[in-house]
Amino acid sequence: MKVLKTNREKFELFLEKIVGDGVLYANVEDEEGQIHFEKLLLDQLSRVTLGKARALETSKAFFFTPRTKVAEYPSSSAQEITATKMTVLGLKACGLRALQILDRVFMDDITDPFYQARRKNSTIITCDCTEPWETCFCTEMGHLPYPESGFDLNISVSNGQILVEVGTKKGDALVAEHSGLFADADKTLLQQREAKRKATVQRVKKINERFGISVPYQKQVKEYLDSPAWKKQGLAYSCVECGACTHVCPTCRCFLLFDQKKGDHAERAMVWDVCFYPGYWRMAGKLTPKPRLLDRFQNRFSCKFDYFVDNYEAIACTGCGRCIEACMGKIDIRQCLSEIQKLEKSPA
Amino acid sequence: MAKVQNPYFPQEAEILEVIEETPTIKTFVLRSQEPIPFKAGQFMELTVPQLGEAPFTPSSSPHKPERMEITILRTGTVTDALHQMKAGQLVGLRGPFGKGYPVQKFYGKEVLVVGGGVGLAPLRSLLYTLFHNIDKFKRVSIKYGARQPEELCFQREFEKWGKLEGADMDVTIDVPAPGWTGKVGLVTTLLDDLDLDLKSCYVVSCGPDVMLKFVTLKLLDVGFRPEQIYLSMNRNMSCGVGKCGHCVVGRYFLCKDGPDMNYADVMDVPGLFG
Question: What's the rounded Cα separation, in Å, for the pair A254 and A143?
Answer without folding.
Answer: 24
